[in-house]
Every structure is written in structure tokens, then in C-alpha cells.
Amino acid sequence: MKNEFIFKTPKTLLNKGSGYLCGYTHSLNPYTGCSFGCSYCYVRQMPVSLFRKGEWGTWVDIKLEAAALLRKELQKAKAKGKVTIFMSSSTDPYQPIEHKEMVTRSLLEVMVEDPPDFLFVQTRSPLVRRDIDLLILLKDRVRVSMTVETDLEEIRKHFTPDAPPINARLKTLQLLRDAGVPTQATIAPVLPSSEAFPEKLRSLVSRVCVDDYYMGDGSGGKRTRKLAIKPLYERFGLEEWYEPSAYRIVFDRLKQVFPADQLFLSQEGFEP
Ligand code: SF4
């Protein structure tokens, strides 16, 4: 898919944490737009995407001079009290353009110099491994949450053809863990997966979060319904996985393998 990249100088970078992210003082998005363009991405139904001509997934705005701006905003925010940051809520900080532009890396460098109280890094990209050298310096003030919605590669390809392969994400979780970076596997949104999925995660993480469209799209599933992705389930005869109770299939399987205090449901799994 052809992508349009535009450089823009933002006025602000740290946004107030609200709604689903009310446990955070701030959210931080190094980019606007996301070239992974997942079929179920609820951001498609948000103003940032609705007021844009190009389809979600085909354009990315690259934030210029982001590090200098963050340095200033972080200092100001820290002077007022505790600072907890969720990166990112409406883009993937390690989408492919980050290889070249390194906006996310530049922001991490700022946060290593002047650490926030907590940084949550949400991604589905193995590229995060490039920044292990910085993440490790944040010690227990950081958690990298790797989206792994399924263990089945054909399901991944069906719902998110432009996202990275599942095995590369699992390998990245292993590398992060071996380096001592706090991690979690985030099964969100729950997609159809195999019975062996929990076992595949067990040796890699000691924290798993499960979330779905109904609990996790910030609108009780309304935004997701507008995306009309049910046909994607129907094509594979997987309608039962579109039901609001589907998360229980995975959660109950996980409970056979993980202790209860390592399992988190929806918002609690994203808390600082
Ligand atoms: S990676 Fe996240 S932000 Fe990007 S398209 Fe997929 S769900 Fe949306």
C-alpha cells in the first residue's frame, strides 16, 4: 500500500490522559496516522481520521522537532507533580517509518535524561528491540506492552495484513525480557486463537492483558460496529469470536496456565 508522509511541527506533544487512559496524566503520540492500518483500528472512527481525505493506514504525519518540544513540556509537567505517560494511544510508535525518522527514539532519549514517573509503551512492532539500550535505562519506570491478538499467523494476515508477523513479536518479547525490560503481552483486541496460545506466552511474560472491542474501544463497541468488520469473521466462519463473550474463551484458557495475579482484563491491564 502506498503511504503519504508529511512533516508537521506540532504545537503540543503531551496530551492530557482522559477516558480509557484516565489513569495516566498524559498520552504521547510521536506520529499522527499509522501505516499498519489494522482493519479493526477504532482510530478510523475518530476525528483525526474522519476529517482526513486519505484512508486510515495510507498517511502518516511525522512530528518535527518533537524531542525539543517534549523536553520543555516534560519539565513543565514534572514541576506540577507526578507524570505518567501512555505512548501511544492513536498510532504505533514503532511503525515502519520510525526505522528512518526515529522520532520515538528521540523522545525516549529525552525521557531517559529526565524520566517521567512511568512510561507505558504500546506497540505491535519488533522495531522496539532497537531501543532496548534506552528502555533499560528507565528501569522499572517503563513497561513495554506488545500487542499479540492471536497466535495464528493466517488470522493475523486476515485482520491486519500490514502488521508485523506474530512470531517476530513473540521473539521481541523474549529479547526485551532477557534484557530486563518490564513487558506484557496484550491480547487486544482478542482475535481467534489456538488452545496452545497461553502455553506459547508462558515462558515469555509474567503479565498478560486481555481486551476486546466492547470493553476497549472507548465507546462500548459502538466505534467498532461502525467499522463493519463482522464480515471478516463471517468469511472464516468465526462469528462466535465476534460475540461480546468471546474474550472469555481466551481468558479461561489463560487461567489454566497463568496465576490470577498475572492476568489483567481491559483497562486494568493498561494502568500505570
Ligand atoms: S497499530 Fe494500532 S494505531 Fe496502528 S492501525 Fe493498528 S490498531 Fe491502529
TrEMBL record:
CDD domains: Radical_SAM. Keywords: Iron, Iron-sulfur, Metal-binding. PANTHER family: SLR0285 PROTEIN. The keyword Ion transport does not apply. It comes from the Bacteria. InterPro entries: Elp3/MiaA/NifB-like_rSAM, MJ0683-like, rSAM, rSAM_sf. Residues 20-252 form the Radical SAM core domain. SUPFAM superfamilies: Radical SAM enzymes (SSF102114). It comes from Neobacillus ginsengisoli. The keyword Iron-sulfur applies. This is DNA repair photolyase. PROSITE patterns: RADICAL_SAM.
